[in-house]
Design a protein that fits this description.
225 residues, alpha+beta, Nucleoside Triphosphate Pyrophosphohydrolase, seven-stranded mixed sheet
């Protein structure tokens, strides 16, 4: 088929991907920001991200930009939302397809490069002023994350290979910013057949040893009922 017969002139917007990367550090929900090397908003804080290449899939663009700007790779990514207000970028008409990602704190080694001069973690409730409409993107990602706690295993992405049920409960409480009943949480999580005991225990201080668990299907985000 001759594709040239379908070509016609029309203004084309640029497309970018932006990534909201969450982790849990110091018992707080935190996200990764980069300090911009170039205008606009030079020297300001922004989400990792960049322009889509003409021969590149959206998800591949998000993964590439995240690795180039932070050194982080091989993590779970989920498409979040499309942001396309006409004047969201002062350079030109730009549509951004946002992704959000989760990573356990023990898997993090930051190596800023590309058009980022610095990469750093910020508490969700203590964010600096952000470039473009990135504050709106962050808020949308947090809303999605909280909503998916009830019907998916997305929170498991924050966990190490072995953990106690109290540590898992703490993840849910940190994201929700509210306390949960210990007995009801354990009953809920065990009834879904998602975790199993390792046969090992961990002692914290003078407390009784706590049983260690691991996920039956690690690396996957599943819908649960």
């Amino acid at each position: 088929m001759n594709t040239k017969q379908f070509c016609y002139w029309h203004p084309h917007p640029a497309v970018t991907t932006d990534i909201v990367l969450f982790t849990l550090r110091a018992e707080k929900l935190q996200l990764l920001l980069i300090r911009r090397r170039n205008p606009p908003f030079q020297g300001g804080w922004a989400l990792p991200g960049g322009f889509l290449d003409m021969d590149e899939d959206l998800a591949d663009c998000a993964k590439r930009e995240l690795e180039e700007e932070t050194g982080i790779k091989n993590i779970y990514l989920e498409q979040l939302y499309t942001f396309g207000k006409a004047k969201r970028d002062p350079r030109e008409r730009v549509i951004s397809v946002a992704y959000y990602a989760l990573i356990a704190s023990d898997r993090i080694t930051l190596k800023p490069a590309s058009d980022a001069t610095e990469a750093a973690w910020f508490a969700f409730d203590e964010l600096p002023e952000l470039a473009f409409d990135h504050r709106e993107i962050v808020e949308k990602a947090h809303e999605r994350l909280v909503a998916k706690l009830d019907y998916s295993t997305i929170a498991f992405q924050f966990m190490p290979k072995q953990f106690t049920l109290s540590e898992l409960q703490n993840v849910y409480e940190t994201i929700r910013a509210e306390a949960l009943d210990k007995r009801n949480f354990r009953k809920w999580i065990l009834a879904r057949n998602l975790v199993e005991a390792t046969g090992l225990e961990r002692r914290n201080g003078s407390h009784r040893p706590a049983q260690l668990f691991h996920f039956k299907r690690p690396g996957r985000v599943e819908i649960i009922r």
